[in-house]
Each structure stands twice: as structure tokens, then as C-alpha cells.
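Example for tutorial group B:
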């Protein structure tokens, strides 16, 4: 019998078509949620990323060639936030690049004890994340831009294979106390000494001793002396062709409507290999990104105030209109009430202070600012309050935050890189002068030619 003109077979076919059209894509879209629900929530190990790193397309050729030289900075930073690790990777990458050597990359390592997972404030995080889950491009083996003859980067595993007995260099062979501690020694001087040292070595295989301190210790990044490195950094492929991983680009596409109001996010976005017409080197028109650094900074900002700490060097380009005058009347581990108030306003601003600064920056911006993305590690309820206050202070098309992102389980542990990618492309960024995460973004924005005054600070 026919019902509504459909045979039994036709009805079945229609049902199947409905399932294929609606249910199947929904299952695909929420696949991570399902997977998480049915697995026991252990952090991801990024095994496919690790596997790919061990088999990059240039390895076969490099293994056969005798003219490729390598630099493995086995002393690279670990066990701290991504911002601090990244600034160290930038310098190691730059040294390899400036000495014509292949940069040897390693994991973003939170815990080097050989474990898979580590307890972090009561929840598990991956002890190590393959760098290719965070980065793409020249730092992780991508092709060099045309005209750049530096050999491509390789993984630590590949280096160990081709360089079983490298020449070991100790940082103390080059860095003396004056270079380390004398604030009148520009970082570029240290760098030049290192370029000289590495260039004097014939051996294609060079390793910086794993037990050595960093060549550029953390306090140098927090001092103007680091700015002298800009001469080397500004035209280097390391900064001009810095790239984020396909995983981060997928996260961007999945959440594009958060950064670009009204943007369509297709059900299939979030898959590797989906093509986007968008040019990722272009700014996102009208976007104001705010780096609202919370969490550990609540106490850290007090500590910075007590010790009259300066901003990170790459937040102190002389062209910037927002400057920081480090107080000179503070003591050892103590400062005046007035100084502390100033530190808190600029390092851990209140909602009211944030709103005020945003209004000022909007008025002063050369390009129209239409919507806001708050990048933050702040707690959801506070971020909601901030969004509300910003919303009532001005007419914004949209105000969103890191807390509104829809991300996969693999993306969750590298999501700071998504925030950095977005901040790098914002029309204007208001950042935290003491944050290495801000300063890395600012450095990339400068290398990629953003107007200097599009970098603002609380
Ligand atoms: N997603 C996200 N995470 C952040 C943000 N700010 C800080 N974090 C987290 O906190 C860590 C900050 O430490 P670090 O990268 O060393 O930068 P710094 O402490 O600001 O100098 C990052 O690695 C992130 O995990 C943010 O705006 N967005
Ligand atoms: Mg940190």
C-alpha cells in the first residue's frame, strides 16, 4: 500500500537519507565529545603527531647528504609555561638559522621524568607534547621560504640517528659572568659570541650540553638588553615565517565565528586538510584582542611589584606609546603602596580599569575596532562579568573569550597557541607587559609588519 506516495522501500530509503544527512554529520561534529564520554579522560598523547615528526619528507635526503649541519640545543627550556618555553625556542632556532644549521626540535616538555601524564592542580596533563601539535612551518621541519638556503629543521630522534657522537658545547665555554649579569652587555653581544663559536666548529653535529643553563637566561628577556636582538630577529625566517600547527588552524576554523562575527562554521570544519579561503597572514578586520592574564598572576604581580620588575623586552619597543617606567624608589622585596597600586593596575587590572583602557584604545585606534576577543586564563564567572561591563561601556558587535571556545580533547592542552594565533592577527592587541605570552605575540606582530602602535598594554 502507498502512504503519501511512498512505497515501503521508498520510506526506508528516505529514513536512510535523513540519517546520512543529519545524524551522521552531527556524530562526526561531536565525535570528540562522544570519544571523551566513552574513554576514561586520560590526556591525549598526540601519537600521530609524534609518528609524523619521525618521518618528515626531507629525512631520507638529509641522511644521505654529508653537507647538512645540525644544532641541537639539548638545554632547551622545559617545565614552565609555553610563553617561557617559546621565547627560548625562538632564540635556539635563531642561533641555528644564523649559523646555517638545521634546527633540532624537541617536545614541549612539562615534565621530563619519562612519565606520560603529570598531575597539575588536581588534574592530569600530558607530560610532553610533540612540538608539531603546537607549531607548523620552519621551526618543525617545514620548507624554508624561497631564497633561504638554511637546512630544514629535524626532530631530536632524527638527529640522534644521524649524529650519534656530536661535539658537545657547554654554555659556560662562552658565557662568562659579565655576559650573564652585566646589564650593559647587550644580548646581541652574547649572540654574536655564540655565532662565532658555532661557526668555528667543523663537526656537522653540535649539541649544547643538556645540563647547561640557557644561553639567554630568563632575566635577560625581562631587560632592555634583549631588544638588541631585534636586528637579528626581525628579518629571520624564524620570526617572519613562524607558523602554528594544523591542529591550531583546525581549532581556529572550528571557532571562526568567535573571532569573525557572522562567519559560517561548517559542520566539517575542524578536520585536518579542510581548505580555508582565509589568508592566515592577514589581520582580522576590526578585532580587538585583550590578553587578560589571571590565575597565578594574582600573586605574581605582587611579587613583580615588590621587586620593581620591568616588562619583557619585546613589550618595550621604543616606538610603542604605552610605556612602563620602572620605579627606582623600591627596596629589596618591598615597595611603596603607590608603586604597588600602579603594578596591580598594569599587571592585574580590575574590570573597571580594563573597561577604561579599552575605551581609550578604541578612540585612539587608527582602524575601527568592532568586536572583542578576551584571551585569558581567568575563571568563567569573572570573565562573564568582564564581558558584561565591556558590553555596557560601548557598542560592540560581539564580545567573546577563551572560555567560549569549542575545542577537541587534543586541542585543549595546546589552546594557548590558538589564542596567540588570534592575538597575532588582531587589528589591535592590549597585552600584559610582564607576560612572555604577550611578548611573543608582540614580537611576531612586529616581525610580520603590524603597525607598532597596534600593540598596546594595560
Ligand atoms: N588559553 C590561554 N592560556 C593562557 C593565557 N594566558 C596564560 N595562559 C596559560 O598560562 C600559561 C602562561 O605561562 P607563560 O606561557 O609562561 O606566560 P607568562 O607566565 O604570561 O609569562 C600559558 O602557557 C597558558 O597555559 C591566555 O590568554 N589564553
Ligand atoms: Mg610564565
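The residue assignment follows.
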Amino acid at each position: 500500500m502507498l502512504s503519501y506516495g511512498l512505497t515501503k522501500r521508498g520510506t526506508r530509503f528516505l529514513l536512510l537519507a535523513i540519517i546520512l544527512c543529519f545524524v551522521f554529520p552531527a556524530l562526526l561534529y561531536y565525535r570528540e565529545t562522544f570519544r571523551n564520554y566513552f574513554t576514561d579522560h586520560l590526556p591525549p598523547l598526540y601519537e600521530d603527531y609524534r609518528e609524523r615528526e619521525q618521518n618528515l619528507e626531507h629525512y631520507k635526503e638529509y641522511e644521505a647528504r654529508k653537507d647538512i649541519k645540525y644544532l641541537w640545543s639539548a638545554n632547551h627550556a622545559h617545565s614552565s609555561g609555553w610563553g617561557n618555553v617559546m621565547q627560548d625556542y625562538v632564540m635556539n632556532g635563531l642561533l641555528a638559522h644564523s649559523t646555517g644549521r638545521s634546527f633540532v626540535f624537541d617536545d614541549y616538555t612539562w615534565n621530563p621524568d619519562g612519565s606520560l601524564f603529570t598531575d597539575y592542580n588536581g588534574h592530569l596533563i600530558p607530560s610532553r607534547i610533540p612540538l608539531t601539535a603546537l607549531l607548523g612551518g620552519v621551526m618543525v621541519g617545514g620548507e624554508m621560504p624561497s631564497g633561504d638556503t638554511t637546512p630544514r629543521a629535524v626532530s631530536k630522534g632524527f638527529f640522534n640517528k644521524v649524529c650519534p657522537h656530536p661535539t658537545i658545547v657547554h654554555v659556560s665555554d662562552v658565557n662568562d659572568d659579565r655576559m650573564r649579569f652585566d646589564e650593559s652587555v647587550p644580548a646581541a653581544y652574547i649572540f654574536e659570541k655564540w655565532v662565532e663559536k658555532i661557526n668555528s666548529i667543523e663537526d656537522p653535529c653540535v649539541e649544547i650540553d643538556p645540563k647547561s643553563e640557557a644561553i639567554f637566561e630568563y632575566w635577560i628577556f625581562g631587560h632592555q638588553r634583549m631588544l638588541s636582538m631585534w636586528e637579528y630577529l626581525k628579518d629571520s625566517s624564524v620570526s617572519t615565517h613562524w607558523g602554528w600547527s594544523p591542529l591550531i588552524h583546525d581549532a581556529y576554523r572550528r571557532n571562526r565565528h568567535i573571532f569573525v562575527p557572522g562567519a559560517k562554521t561548517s559542520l566539517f570544519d575542524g578536520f585536518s586538510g579542510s581548505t580555508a579561503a582565509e589568508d592566515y597572514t592577514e589581520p582580522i578586520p576590526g578585532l580587538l584582542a585583550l590578553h587578560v592574564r589571571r590565575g597565578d598572576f594574582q600573586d605574581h604581580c605582587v611579587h613583580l611589584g615588590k621587586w620593581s620588575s620591568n616588562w619583557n623586552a619585546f613589550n618595550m619597543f621604543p616606538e610603542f606609546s604605552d610605556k612602563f617606567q620602572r620605579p627606582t624608589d623600591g627596596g629589596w622585596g618591598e615597595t611603596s603602596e603607590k608603586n604597588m597600586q600602579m603594578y596591580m593596575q598594569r599587571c592585574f587590572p580590575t574590570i573597571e580599569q580594563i573597561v577604561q583602557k579599552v575605551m581609550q584604545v578604541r578612540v585612539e585606534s587608527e582602524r575601527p575596532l568592532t568586536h572583542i576577543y578576551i584571551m585569558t586564563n581567568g575563571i568563567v564567572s569573572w570573565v562573564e562579568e568582564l564581558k558584561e561591563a565591556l558590553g555596557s561601556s560601548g557598542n560592540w558587535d560581539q564580545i567573546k573569550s577563551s572560555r567560549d571556545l569549542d575545542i577537541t580533547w587534543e586541542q585543549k592542552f595546546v589552546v594557548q597557541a590558538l589564542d596567540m594565533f588570534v592575538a597575532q592577527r588582531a587589528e589591535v592587541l592590549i597585552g600584559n607587559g610582564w607576560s612572555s605570552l604577550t611578548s611573543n605575540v608582540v614580537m611576531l606582530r612586529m616581525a610580520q609588519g603590524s603597525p607598532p602602535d597596534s600593540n598596546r598594554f594595560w
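The two ends are 74 Å apart (CA to CA). Compare this with the pattern of hydrophobic and polar residues in the output above.
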